[in-house]
Amino acid sequence: MTTTTADHPTRRDFLLVATGAAAAVGGVASLWPFVSQMNPDAATIAAGAPIEVDIAPIADGQDIKVFWRGKPIYIMHRTKKQIEEARAVEVDTLRDPATDESRVKDGHDQWLVVIGICTHLGCIPIAHQGEYDGFFCPCHGSQYDSSGRIRQGPAPANLPVPPYQFVSDTKIQIG
Predict the structure, then answer these.
(1) Which domain holds residue 29?
(2) Spatial contact of 170 and 56, defined as CB atoms under 8 Å apart
(3) Cα separation of 3 and 90, whole Å?
(4) Distance between CA atoms of residues 169 and 17, nearest Å
């Protein structure tokens, strides 16, 4: 028996390499959808993304409601009277003590940004209602002042302040 070796590739070598390459490409092509389905979809990514809000058109005493991560966010342009009333409150008398200054950004005292979900049972309070010219939850009677602090009713805590920053004098970024 005599074995011979070729110094150049044969047709069989080419078929083996081509078949192996096709199998590798097919394997990667079939794995790609399984790997990519593990990534979050665009709606999920957008739901947690920061939002920018133009606050220039909001007049003194007005507020707007925007949504961030599926939660209502109140942006209130407070009047001087509302700011003075909020700062005149003795912090020791509050159920959830917090100063007005700790709930707004320095130099932007007229802007209050809070998550508009009542801390009692998760209802949506109404802005500029109640005895304190802040927020009133009609479901169970919780009343918040113009700084979003609980003043009356069953709610245990103040309206939360979301993470936000001023991008410019007329825009804020929430998130």
Answers:
(1) 10-39
(2) yes
(3) 102
(4) 65
Q: State how far the alpha carbon of 47 is from the alpha carbons of 35, 64, 173, in Å.
A: 22, 19, 14
Enter the tokens of residue 26: 């097919």
Q: In the chain, how many domains are there? A: 2
Q: Is there a single domain that holds both residue 86 and residue 35?
A: no
For 98-124, what is each residue's pLDDT tens digit? 998 999 998 898 999 999 999 888 888
Same domain for 61 and 35: no
Tell me the whole-structure pTM to 2 decimals. Answer: 0.72
Q: Is the pLDDT of residue 76 over 90?
A: yes
Token pair 């011979």 is found at 4
Taking all residues of the chain, what is their mean pLDDT, rounded to a whole number?
Answer: 87
68 alpha carbon, distance to own chain's centre: 4
Catalytic residue list: 140
Cα 103 to the center of its chain, rounded Å: 17
